[in-house]
Amino acid sequence: MAIVGVLALQGSFNEHIAALRRLGVKGVEIRKPEQLRNVTSLIIPGGESTTMAKLAESYNLFPALREFVKMGRPVWGTCAGLILLSNNAVGQKSGGQGLIGGLNCTVHRNLFGSQLQSFEAELLVPEIASSEGGPETFCGVFIRAPAILEVGKEVQVLADYPAPSNGLLEENVEEERRVIVAVRQGNILATAFHPELTADTRWHSYFLKMADDTGEEALSSPVAIPVDISCVQQPRNDLPIYR
């Protein structure tokens, strides 16, 4: 059975492990560099990117994580994980933070605002629908979310969304500006939202299949349990808050 590592320093790592379990795949918590030797793919969950970076420094994880990415192993970052995988991040706290890098993009660390501005939205995801079936849309859960402002030519855009009108970006009154919220670059997958907080496992299934595309050991095809994957609006205080 395939074993997927999930970075378990802080954030929604348990939710990712539960989603993998629904697909019949084992997820294991990763906190030490040597544990990366036992997995062929890795998920970096949502949470608080500055805290995660400080903990990664404390555990001396950054060199091993960067090497894991450079080796071409499949890596998926959600929300904070997207920030950590990016080559460039803006809107950081004073003093900045460590980045793993590897994803040729510039990300705004907190473009969609504070926890109070958390929201859900239907996103057009034609690549995911084509690969994994199901509807053309996906319910994106955005919690104090980042967004990608620029990508390199080798980066495939998988989803975008209208930029918020919060003054953090220059606005063009003649044309609605959209920002990127999901990408793939070779062995790297990144989403600004939290698929692990929904019942829809198509992003996890898509990630598992990336092992074949990147030349890694083939993973058995996951079978998802049928669920209602419609995007039902919830009160914002029902959304998990990572401090």
Automatic annotation (TrEMBL):
Stored InterPro entries? Class_I_gatase-like, PdxT/SNO, PdxT/SNO_CS
Residues bound to L-glutamine are 47-49, 109, 143-144
Which residues participate directly in catalysis? Answer: 79, 194, 196
What Pfam families has UniProt attached to this entry? Answer: SNO
EC number(s) stated in the UniProt entry for this protein = 3.5.1.2
SUPFAM superfamilies, sorted: Class I glutamine amidotransferase-like
* Gene Ontology biological process terms in this record: pyridoxal phosphate biosynthetic process; pyridoxine metabolic process
Which of UniProt's keywords are assigned here? Glutamine amidotransferase, Hydrolase, Lyase
Which chain positions lie within coiled-coil regions?
none
Q: Name one GO cellular component term.
A: glutaminase complex
What enzyme class is recorded for this protein?
hydrolase
GO-annotated molecular function: glutaminase activity; lyase activity
- Organism domain of life: Eukaryota
* Catalysed reactions listed for this entry: L-glutamine + H2O = L-glutamate + NH4(+)
Name the family.
Belongs to the glutaminase PdxT/SNO family.
Record protein name field: glutaminase
Taxonomic placement: Eukaryota, Viridiplantae, Streptophyta, Embryophyta, Tracheophyta
